[in-house]
Structure prediction request, 805 residues.
Amino acid sequence: MALRLVADFDLQRDVLPGLLAQRAAPAVAGAPGGGADILENYDSLRVLNFERNGNIIYTYKDDKGSVFFGLYDCQTRQNEHLYTFETDLQVISCSINSERTLLAVSLVQTTKEGRRNELQPGSKCLTLLVEIHPINNVKVLKAVDSNIWVQFLYPRVESHPLSENHLLLISEEKYIEQFHIQVIQEDGNKVVIKNSGHLPRDRVAEDFVWAQWDMLEQRLYYIDLKKSRSILKCIQFNADESFTLMFAAPLDISLNDSGFKLVNFGCDYLQDQEELSKHLSLCVFTNKTGSLCVCYSPKFDSWEQITYSVFYFHKGHSKTFTAALGSGDSHVTKGVTFLNLDYFVAVYLPGHFFHLLNIQHPDLICHSLFLTGKNEMIDMLPHSPLQSLSGSLVLDWSSGKLYRALLNQSYLLQFLWNTPLDCERMAVLHCVLSCSRESRFLEAQIIQWISENISACRSFDLIQEFIIASSYWSIYPETSNIDKLLPYSSVHTWNTEIPGITLVTEEIALPLMKVHRFKGYWEKLNYNLEYVKYTKPHFHYNNSVIRREWNNLISEEKTGKRRSAAYVRNILDNAIKVISNLEARSFEPSLTPLFQEEDNPQRLLIGLMVSELRDHLLRHLQGVEKKKIEQMVLDYISKQLDLICCILEASWRKHNLHPWVLHFDRHGSGAEFSVFHLMTRILEATHSLFLPLPPGFHTLHTVLGVHCLPLHNLLHYIDNGVLLLTETAVTRLMKDLDNTERNEKLKFSIIVRLPPLIGQKISRLWDHPMSSSIISQNHVKQLLQNYKKQLCMLLKDMTMWMQNL
Prediction:
């Protein structure tokens, strides 16, 4: 399947064996619930909360109804008993502070037996703050008729014990409070609450209908309704114990009749899991590059299709997708699941469809993978409700398993080989490249697939897409702003429909940032918003800007003219740096005879690309060191050359070619023709993008062309610019071939097509009357040109003399 769910935690594996062993052991004085009474009902064991430091709080009951709280330490992989309530209560929410000294818990009286709450008569929900280091006092924070959820804040500075803890209380009555709890140490390590009779509190938010907690980044997202308009807001809790309203963003969705909904505030077991399909799904996802996505699926209107929207605030638009579910009797019993996968968001409905959305580049639908119907990838996804936590963590509340969701690279590669659709090939290619930046093996697998399917795609050029996308991802982690400066894809438009899904794209109002000084993620998000707001033209680098300069340099080289020697030397020095950088990155010796000649035209193109790309990045990458930018440029261009070499190497190795291919005095084989065809396709791909080729590429291409093509086809390729005659290739041709009638015709046809400056040098290598004739013709032509110049000057002098008379 496309997603690989790796279990980091499993109640049945990491907690239950210890509890069973405790049950079998004889009762020990002071042991929590020891003896045969513990965990009589295994179904009561469930996860309550997942804290920022990775620790997991769980609960279970014994046969008497006592409620036990335990903690699983993700670092030591040990379980710790926290507290026990010897009363039959149902837990709503639970959280523990980072020092494990305070436990906050919300409870309701179990209603099966109709008993009243013995701890606080007359109230439905009781919110308690318990001192557990050691177990000491219990303080009542709330005793109300509405449900309460609790969550301790975890500041980033955790190197020393905190004198003050901060606890969020989220009320079903649509307000959020923050309690400030000071603790002191008594009698050694005993931790108690200071001034427990009066705990300071702040009102964080009110009148909201939906809230989501970002455990990793300590952010609170919530939606309040202003005149029936949904406004998304975000509060950032800072390390200095303050909190800041960061932005407000209008959402074009209706939440008037959706009821009260919380996301990631522990597990809400009060909600009927079977009714999930009847409620909306709403999640906020971010990543380190400054993206901000709101994923939304309204209540189901029919059983035939489902609609979901993604608001790409960092791009300034939203996309609404409508996916067909098949026959009308295929009832949906589960809701839509949204999972955050860093650069992607997975949207799926088990048994119906799977959509892998590209968050970084959502403009073209072909960059996202959509699958529908009876598909192995869809059927293998979990059917139980999953909750996406921060990062790529996924929690299955029903089974008590915590997964790390990863893209299944091996499955995606297999899918790449088997799918017949261009849109799916494009999406999977980018997906694999995004998660294989350091994997030479995966890159080799893609190259093998390209070699076998080089003509399979009609909507885009496989070689172009691979070179552009792979080069982009090779330096993407260096700076998140690079996606606005370098091309991500060779495809700029996509008009082909994706089977099973329709799409509507709309512009949206950008979030209004409420602060003016940003750090980290907020700085990147603000940069993205400013880019959308003020930048109309795209800043993507395009090699075509150096086309004219390169053509001028080549023209000067052919005619023997040169501009400033220092300028040309600087360009060639740039090329030397790229080639040296490429050689340093190479892990294996090269099989193909490349980089064995100067090839000034290609070196000039490489050097010009270095200069232009470096200037482009320096103009737009503010605050990045010049040295770092120069290294990024070298890595980027080196990667492009390396990819071309790798494609050619793979074909060379597959057909078992040898270095003697460079000799002209032999006939071509079917293997050589296959490599020649591949090189022609590489040339076509790089020519339209104006990308440099490895020095020696044109020489090898010409040699294979002479081996494999009839003379008239060979000359046709030369005249149309497919084969470029290099001085190295023609020199070898003159030396390797004897003067048979066929070879004389070939040599003459080549010489007359050479530029005059190179033609004169090559003609002297051919000891033949025809060569002598060509040399004589060129000599007479030069004499006539000089005579004409002298005659013109003489006539000009005579004219001036006559005028002076």
In short: The chain is about 35% helix and 25% strand. The radius of gyration is 35 Å.
